[in-house]
Design goal:
626 residues; alpha+beta; 6-stranded antiparallel β-sheet
C-alpha cells in the first residue's frame, strides 16, 4: 500500500514527481524512491507490508533497468506467481509482490500478467526499450489511479492533489462541482480538475510517443436465471470466502480485523479464527448511541475466542472537516468517512493491515433498494406498455409525500427503470428550489439525470442498477471512503468480499436466490450455520456520524464563519446569503439537509485546495521533502 507518481515528457519531470511525492507522503511514510530515464521519472512513497528491508523499495527495476515499476496495493497470489516464474528461470532478490510484476511483465507481457493477478492494485510500468508507459487499475477499482495527458506529456498519481501540485491539472471543472453537489462525491467519470482523468476499473492504459489507448481487461459476471440450491450456494460461498480471507492474512507486519455486530465483519472474524489466524479484532464503540454495536461484537469475539479490543469514540473524538478534506484529494462529503478516519487512527498503533467486511452488501445484495428494485422489476413484467407510458406522462403531476410517496416511487421504478431511479435523488433540484447556485452553476446538470426512462429498463431494473451503482456510488463513494480514510493514517485495508473469485461467483447467483429469503440471503444462511441465529438475524446499523444534526447545532458557528468570507460565493459557485437563510431554518428544525453539509465540506475543501497545490507538505500534515 503506497503512493505512486510518474511523469513522462515535459520540461521538468523530476521536479514534478518530487512535488507529487511530497503530496503523497501520508500514503507511504516508511520510505521513498525515485528513478530516472531520459525524459521519464517514476516516484514512490512506501508503506512497507512485504519484505520490510530496503530490498523492497520502489521504483523496482529489472537488472538492466529497462523496466521500472511503481505499485500501490497488494497481489495476494504473488507467492504462486513467483513459483511459476522461478520454474521459468527467473531469479528473485526480494520477498515482495512488486518483484513479481517486473519478472511477470518480461515473461508474459502486460495483458497476460494482469490476467494472472489476484488482488487490489494501481500500477505504473515504464518499458524503456519500447518507450511505453502502462497504467493499470484493479478489477473493481479498489485502488485509485489518476492521470493527465496533455501538451505532449503524461503524468499519473494516486490522488488529484498530487497531480495538481505538479502543475498537471487544469482549473476546477464546473461539471465535477455539479456532480459533487448532486451526490456528495465526484464519480469516476470525471475529476474535480479539468485535464485530469481517473483510470477506470479493470483498465489498461498504454501511452507511447504521445498516443494513448485504453482497453478493458475484465468484466463482472452476470446473474443467471437458474442456479444452485441455497445449500449448494452456501457451500461454494464458504469455500471461496475462506480462500479470500486466507490470502489476505499474508503480511510481514501486524494484521488486525474490524468487528462490528453485523453479518459481514463477523463472518470475516469467524473465517480468521477457523484458519488459525492469530490477530486482534477491533470494535469501535459509541457509548450511549442507539447504533452502538459493542455488546454484539464482544459476544461474537468471546464465542470465536479471538483477541478483541473495544475503542470507545465520543463525539469529541470525531475528526473535523479539516482532516476530512486533507484525507481526500477531491471534495468528499460521505459522513461515515469521518468515522473511517477515526477508526484508522485508533487501529494504526496496533496493526498496519486491517481486514474488513466492506463490499458484502454490494457482492451479495444487502441494501434495501436491491429488494425494492427486484420487486419493481418483477412487477414490470406484467405492466402493459400503454399503461406504463400513461403513468410516466402523468407521474410528474402526482404528489410525492405522505402515504403517496412510496407507492408512487415504486410505480416510477416499475415503469421507468433506471432513468426513474436516477431522478428520485434530490440533489441539484434542492439547490435550485432555494436559489443556492451561483452564476457559474446557472446551467448545472448531471448526466445521470438524463438517463431515459423506459419500461424495457424497468424489466431489467436490478441488473441495470447494479451496473450503474458499481460505476458510481460503489467506486466513487464506498471504495474511496475506505482508501482515503485508512491511507490518511498509513493503514492498509483489505476486504475478502472484494476478492475477484468470490465476487464473480456471487454475481452469477440468481437474484431470487440472493434476495428470496431477505437481503443477503446466502451470507445470512452462512452466518446462521457458522455463527448462529443472533448474528444471522442482526440488523444492519453501522458507525454513524450525525453531521446534519451537528451542522444545525455545534458546528453552525464554524459554518457561519466560513460563509462570512465564502470562497464559493467569491468564485461564483454558491450564493452564501441564501445558504445562510437555509442554515437558519435548519437550526430551528434541529437538523440540516445533506445539501448544506455538502456545501460546508466543499467550502472547507476549496480553502485547503489552494494550500495543497502550492504547499503540499503543509496541506497533508507533513513537512517531509524528497
Amino acid at each position: 500500500m503506497c503512493g505512486i507518481a510518474g511523469f513522462v515528457g515535459g520540461t521538468d519531470p523530476e521536479g514534478a514527481v518530487r512535488r507529487m511525492m511530497t503530496a503523497l507522503a501520508r500514503r507511504g511514510p516508511d520510505a521513498q524512491g525515485l528513478e530516472r530515464w531520459p525524459g521519464v521519472v517514476l516516484g514512490h512513497r512506501r508503506l512497507s507490508i512485504f519484505d520490510l528491508s530496503d530490498a523492497g523499495r520502489q521504483p523496482m527495476l529489472s537488472e538492466d533497468r529497462s523496466i521500472g515499476v511503481v505499485f500501490n496495493g497488494a497481489i495476494y497470489n504473488f507467492l504462486d506467481l513467483r513459483a511459476e516464474l522461478e520454474r521459468q528461470g527467473c531469479g528473485f532478490h526480494t520477498r515482495t509482490d512488486t518483484e513479481v510484476l517486473v519478472h511477470g511483465y518480461r515473461e508474459w507481457g502486460i495483458d497476460r500478467l494482469i490476467g494472472k493477478l489476484r488482488g487490489m492494485f494501481a500500477i505504473g510500468l515504464w518499458d524503456q526499450t519500447r518507450r511505453t508507459l502502462y497504467l493499470v487499475r484493479d478489477r473493481l477499482g479498489v485502488k485509485p489511479l489518476l492521470y493527465s495527458d496533455r501538451n505532449g506529456y503524461i503524468a499519473f498519481a494516486s490522488t488529484a492533489w498530487a497531480l495538481a501540485s505538479a502543475g498537471a491539472a487544469g482549473e476546477i471543472d464546473s461539471r465535477a462541482v455539479s456532480e459533487y453537489l448532486e451526490f456528495g462525491y465526484v464519480t469516476d467519470d470525471r475529476t474535480i480538475y479539468r485535464d485530469v482523468s481517473k483510470l477506470p476499473a479493470a483498465t489498461i492504459l498504454e501511452w507511447h510517443d504521445g498516443a494513448l489507448t485504453q482497453r478493458q481487461y475484465w468484466q463482472s459476471t452476470q446473474a443467471q436465471e437458474r442456479g444452485p440450491s441455497l445449500e449448494e450456494a452456501v457451500e461454494e460461498t464458504e469455500r471461496h470466502f475462506l480462500e479470500a480471507v486466507r490470502i489476505r492474512l499474508e503480511a510481514d507486519v501486524p494484521v488486525g480485523a474490524l468487528l462490528s455486530g453485523g453479518v459481514d465483519s463477523s463472518l470475516v472474524c469467524w473465517a480468521i479464527a477457523k484458519l488459525g489466524g492469530r490477530i486482534r479484532a477491533f470494535t469501535i464503540g459509541t457509548p450511549g448511541d442507539e447504533a452502538d454495536e459493542t455488546a454484539d461484537a464482544c459476544r461474537t469475539a468471546r464465542e470465536l475466542g479471538i483477541d478483541h479490543e473495544v475503542i470507545d469514540v465520543s463525539p469529541e473524538d470525531v475528526p473535523g472537516t479539516g482532516e476530512l478534506v486533507t484525507a481526500y484529494g477531491e471534495p468528499f462529503a460521505c459522513a461515515s468517512a469521518l468515522g473511517m478516519i477515526r477508526v484508522a487512527r485508533a487501529v494504526k498503533p496496533a496493526a498496519t493491515v486491517l481486514v474488513t467486511g466492506d463490499g458484502g452488501d454490494d457482492c451479495f445484495l444487502g441494501y434495501p433498494e436491491h429488494r425494492h428494485f427486484w420487486w419493481a422489476q418483477r412487477a414490470a413484467q406484467w405492466i402493459p406498455a400503454r399503461a406504463a407510458h400513461r403513468w410516466l406522462a402523468a407521474s410528474g403531476d402526482l404528489p410525492r409525500h405522505g402515504r403517496f410517496k412510496r407507492p408512487g416511487h415504486f410505480l416510477d421504478y416499475a415503469t421507468g427503470g433506471l432513468g426513474a431511479v436516477a431522478r428520485i435523488h434530490d440533489g441539484l433540484p434542492y439547490y435550485r428550489r432555494h436559489g443556492l447556485l451561483g452564476a457559474r452553476l446557472a446551467d448545472a446538470h448531471v448526466a445521470q439525470r438524463e438517463i431515459p426512462r423506459s419500461l424495457d429498463s424497468a424489466r431489467r431494473l436490478l441488473a441495470d442498477f447494479i451496473e450503474y451503482d458499481r460505476r458510481t456510488r460503489f467506486v466513487g463513494e464506498y471504495l474511496t471512503k475506505v482508501d482515503g480514510g485508512t491511507m490518511y493514517h498509513a493503514l492498509e485495508a483489505r476486504s475478502p468480499f472484494l476478492d475477484q473469485e468470490l465476487w464473480n461467483y456471487a454475481q452469477s447467483l440468481p437474484y431470487a436466490l440472493r434476495l428470496g429469503g431477505g437481503l443477503k440471503t446466502v451470507l445470512r444462511a452462512l452466518a446462521r450455520r457458522r455463527l448462529g441465529e443472533r448474528v444471522a438475524s442482526g440488523h444492519k446499523r453501522g458507525f454513524s456520524i450525525p453531521v446534519q444534526r451537528w451542522l444545525a447545532g455545534k458546528w453552525r458557528p464554524a459554518f457561519e464563519e466560513l460563509l462570512d468570507h465564502s470562497e464559493l460565493d467569491r468564485q461564483g459557485w454558491i450564493r452564501a446569503d441564501r445558504v445562510r437563510e437555509r442554515l437558519r431554518s435548519a437550526s430551528e428544525e434541529g437538523s440540516a439537509p445533506q445539501q448544506l453539509w455538502y456545501i460546508y465540506v466543499l467550502e472547507a475543501w476549496l480553502r485547503r485546495e489552494r494550500v495543497a497545490v502550492t504547499e503540499p507538505a503543509l496541506a497533508n500534515g507533513t513537512r517531509s521533502a524528497v
